[in-house]
## 1
Amino acid sequence: MVRKVHKRRAGGASDPEAAAAVVMVLYITDSGPNSIRAVANLEAICREHLQGNFRLEVIDVLECPLRALADGVVVTPSLAKLSPLPVATVVGNLSDTGSVLRALGIAE
Amino acid sequence: MIDPKRGTTQDLPKIATGIQGFDELSYGGLPRKRITLLNGGPGSGKTMFALQSLVGAARMRGEHGIFVAFEERPRQIIANAAGFRWDLPALLKRKLFFMDANLSPDVVQSGEFDLRGMLAMLKAKKEEIGAQWIVFDGIDVLLTLLQNPKSEMREIYRIRDWLADNEVDAAIFTAKIDAHGPGPANYGFLQFMVDCVIEFDSRLDCGVALHRVQVTKYRGSAFARGEYPVSFGPAGMEIAGPEPTEIRQVASSERVSAGFERFDTMLGGGLFRGSSTLITGVPGTSKTTLSGKFAEAACLRGERTLFVSFDEGADRIVRNLTSVGIQLKPHLKSGVLRMYSGRTESVAAEDHLVRLKALIAEHRPRCMVIDPLSAIAKAGGLAAARSVANRFIYTAKDLKITVVVTAINESDQPESEASDLQISTIADTWIHLSYLIRGGERNRALTIIKSRGTQHSNQVRELILSDAGPVLADVYTAGGEVLMGTLRWEKEDEERAKTIQRRSEFDQKRASLEFAEAETRARIKSLEQDLARKRIELETYFSDDQARTLSSSDREQSLRRIRSADLTARAATATVTSPDKHSGSNGSGNPGRKSKSEPRNGP
């Protein structure tokens, strides 16, 4: 799946060949406090649990609302895990790390 | 600004929904550029109301809309509305947009979220399609997800501000909020924030679901208070709005035939155009026949006619009426007549009314029959059926349709109708059919109980069904009893015999009188002959007497001549008593005779 990346806050995969890389899209609204918190929380999770083995696309819904609509976003912030399957969605500022990890398929 | 109609300050601007009845009870529709909350339990019709408002706006005024579905999937909502004549697929192409805002059960929630993103998406979509209406369906589901009262309030106010900033013409929230229920989540702030609250209610009444709608709040505007029945027809939801308190129907003085001549005569010339007639009676008293005859007469005049029957198929009715000489088939074929047969068990009275209105709109009849209207009370409450019957009659009057409805009475007393559907009070004409059982027979009697504005007959007539249709016959009352059927025939025979007898008696009497007259005449004749005879006799006698008098005076003269007596005195006497002076006059004859006889007797 090819997606245009609008904002890259977290670093890409250090090893592009990694098959088990987690592919995620985070939908935020630029200035919202929940969004700022969500980005910070996700960065921490990636740093601690994914060791760089992930790809994250951050989309500002204020900038491309019709795309977000097409992607089925309802509320923000909203995190979609596209790979590995199954697809999972987490809504909220991602403050509950445990539930985010479960949704990403990463055992505690 | 003063509204001349209501004499109060101008209400806030409104936007019509196109939902029949609602725009009337809200005096114009939903508040423009404000939020309306539709509140009610599951299946109470709030989602349909919201969607129908969007559809109405799109179809009536070309206003586009967005439907945000938090609770039901858009697919489901569209499928539910497929039964209505809304042409939804065409609207979905350009005019209506559904946003699936369901958070699937698989969605994991981690911390707080907000609606900034959603509103940004809606704004983009609004600008793309030029939407003026927006519906948030199931906003309570969203509020529940927010989990904390502060966030709930914050997000609702966020929506409100967004609506104001984006100049949305009309916004509708739907929710299932039990304001009196237990639990903290009664969302009082939501009720306060919106400008218009409409409560939806669905309950079971005698096994039939009754839908009701009630406006409980309308900031800055008057509205019709109270609950109004809701029904679902082919055009969607319909609300039986408040009836106009003033009756403005124009009374026609044109008469239409009630079916057959003698009946029309009884009614003083027929039924008034646009009037309503109620025929009551226990089962089997020919209510259908009478109304069928009315329908046939209307068809023969070429007037479009609608015949609605309940619990009996149109085919059977046509066949049964044919047996009494009423031919409806040719009119069905030509399309002048439309027949509709409905089932009544488990159909709410309100739904019948919707169906009737749809039929009227389709067929545009000038004359209409409902047989029996009382059947609508079969399922559901009597109060609802009464209201429907009333509204039907008023609808028909508004449309100037001449209506004949029948009602089955439980008892043979016409007064019992008053306790059933109570149509008799609003019907213009009330005809009661009853059975009279006398002499081992059951005969039908027809009475006109009332007929407004008409010199109608107050006599009971016997209704006889023949191959040529219904016929009315006089009834006899004898000793306070009404005679019908065989007893009537007997009575008629008796009357005929009596007439013959009277005539012969008369003839006899006349003959005897004539005889007496002739006899008297004969007697008069013989008496006259007698009289004539006597007269002749008298005259004969008189002339003899003269002759005698003359001869005696001759003798006297001759004596005087002999004795030379005074002649002059005797001559004078002779001239007075001369016979030519007396003849021809009988009356003066007697004294003449006396004066003559004196001198004669003297000597």
Note: Chain B has 18 helices and 25 strands.
## 2
Amino acid sequence: MNTPTYQQLAGQPVGQQVKIQGFSLPDAVRLRLLEMGLTEGAECSVVRYAPLGDPIEVKIRGYFLSLRQDEAKGILVGRAE
Amino acid sequence: MKTPRQHRAAERVAFPNQDGSSAKVASKPNDARVCTIAIAGNPNSGKSTLFNALTGLRQKVGNYPGVTVEKKVGRFFGSHGEPMDLLDLPGTYSLQARSPDEAVARDVLLGRRQDTPAPDLVLCVVDATNLERNLYFVAQLAELGLPMVVALVMIDLAERDGWSINAVELSRRLGCPVIPTVAANGKGLVELRQAITRQLHGSPPHRATLPPAIETAASLVQNVLAKGEGAWSEFPAAEAILLVSGTQEQADAAPAAIQSTLGLARDSIKTAGVDAISATVHARYKWVETIVEHSVRTRRGPQAALSERLDEVFTHKIWGWLVFLGVMATVFFMIFRVAELPMGWIEAGQKALNRWIESGLPASDFRDLLSNGIIAGVGGVVIFLPQILILFFFIGLLEDTGYLARAAFIMDRVMSRVGLHGKSFVPMLSSFACAIPGIMGARTIDNSKDRLVTILVAPLLSCSARLPVYSLMIAVMLPATFNAWKKAGLMLGLYALGMIAAFGMAWLFRRTLFRGERSLLLLEMPPYRCPSLRVTLARMWERASLFLRQAGTVILAISVIIWALSTYPKPANPAATPSQALASSAAGRLGHLIEPVIAPLGYDWKIGIGIISSFAAREVFVGTMSVIYSIENGEENTPALRDAMLAERNRDGASTYTPLACLSLMVFYVLAMQCLSTLAVVRRETNSWRWPAFQFAYMALLAWAGAFLVFQGGRLLGLG
């Protein structure tokens, strides 16, 4: 990666492999997301958006996790090499 | 080195429990005591299945005092026949607890609960299909320093998915026995028993090394905790790591005596330029990644693809909703149609029992209490059992197949619009059968605001006890000439009114009483699995018996009270008819007493008696009306009761049951909280009388206002 341009996890196209770079979320939420395996440097991808657009389903560490747009907007990602 | 248990003697301030009360140390005799083994693991990891397989029927289900979390203890025997207590903890992702369930698991594991001895060994259940996240919790549990045994479950599924797990290598790297186990066919249970027996006196497993700044800070806090001066902990090392690596709010909640040390420790981490929250989790995951890298080989399997293909349909923009509606329609059909048959048998049995008592005993108050108080009361609970069993069976089935997570996934947006949660959806669904299992089901919601709002609005959804009342009032309102479609439409309208009221009130509560940002939704989407009928049936029965115990005793007591109110005082004239006797009883007088309040709604004092008697269970209304209008066997004989009600005239000669009055009464029954058993369960679930009192008040107000609007509004429009 040349210049780190961080994007939100929310809005990523389905199937796009991304790497988690950081969070802009309250500590308590960040702690739980980290513990669920969404650690900085981990690769994940959006699997699908719910029929009404929210929540979104993410594949992380070999399992599937749904979270709301509010949280997904606070997860900063970059393209995975 | 001293063990933590030798630090008991000094006087200490212990860590606060979830409910804020302070837990004292449970004393444990040193010799010949029964060891306690805690089963811990992530939610949906198959913990309870393993627990059942290890304990068989030797188990007790109760509640942890102060919180409504189920406490399951079972007897288990080591390989030399030594008895041990096996404790099935609620599913947990982390010791940094977020929900009441997780807080209980954390408190038990850290030995903070007075009512539960600290574990001697942790049996950690690890789902082989989701190894990294499950091992993260193992990494955290390893910090306790307790002997540990890992039961590796669902290894057959993992192999089918293309994972090949080397349990020996895993065991070597974790530093504790790892036993591949299939609870369903008993594979690995003997080895597990041996490993537990051996490991009870074994050494603790390896653990992840945290960044130096965090380890140093944690040992600083640990020293203070281990000295037991002012603050004390059973597992000071693990407690210290939690405190230095948790959020500021968690640190602020720690005992005052360690605050200064804790503050210094946390500052030292910050000064070192380390983000404690992120670095700790990171170090544990790195440790896990290395272990997985060396003990797991992958090749892509076909099974995961099937699950993903199913999701293409079940969460599709159009098919998803159709499947959802189809599933709901099936559940409703089963609850309301298929349950009718066994409900008929129960009713017939109850009548036969009553006849038998009436033929065997001379007429007396005692016989009356037996048949109209106790048998009617018990019958009032048992009659709902078929519906409750079917409901729990389907919820269990949907849970085990993995569909429930998908339903919550597509419904969350709808529910969160009104401030509810995707997980509120099951409690709301249950409430159509009965609000009590719905309210008990709200335990799975981790956010307390979401949970309270769900509990507060659940009884607005029309439960099946309202059905007999709706049927009777629709029959009175729309005489036989009206076609069945109009009646069905009216019935549907009543259900819709309940739903609109529930969502509306949820929205209102979220904007007034329970303001705050939307809560966190983290929903694991498990792969679809073929459920085991035995497991589903066992859980159905477990939940149903909880319902029987929670609701049964209350409904029985209330039925006896309502019976007494409608029997005493006796009429002065011994030849009085049952309807005259009822009029002169306490209930009858209460009916007269509340008449001024309900008159604007179009009701007379006789309906008042019906409303009062409905507090035992709403369907009692029909029976009470039968007594008032002296109809024999009223429940069976709705046409006779309907005609008697239609013939009823006010003092001024006008019909009492005008269509408008009937509608007003139905609206009242949709919205009013006429169920003391529900209130009793709400009290138990919220741990205070405040919420049931508030719930009763707001629903009474809503019902009165709704009925008033219908009746007076209708009259203004000239419909009366």
Note: Residues 1-13, 17-31 of chain B have pLDDT under 50 and may be disordered.
